[in-house]
Amino acid sequence: MVPKRNWFFKKPLNDFIKKALANMTTPHGLRKISRSQVAKCFEVFRQIGRQSGPLVAIFGLLLASPSVYAQDAWSYSTIEESAHEFHRTTSSLNEVSREAAVSPPTAAFFTPLDWLDAWIETGLRATQGLFDLLQYMQQNTSPRSREDLLSALPKYDRVELFGGWINEDSPADCYNTRAEVLLRDADPNESVQFTSRNKCMVYKAKWIDPFSGAQFKLANAIQVDHIVPLKAAYLSGAHAWNQNRRCRYANFMDDPTHLLSVSGHENMSKGDAGPERYLPPDTRFTCKYLHIWMKVKAVWGLEYPAEEAAAIQQALAANKCPASATSMPVQDHQNLRAESLRPIAKCGEVEP
Question: Residue 148: which domain range?
Answer without folding.
Answer: 141-347
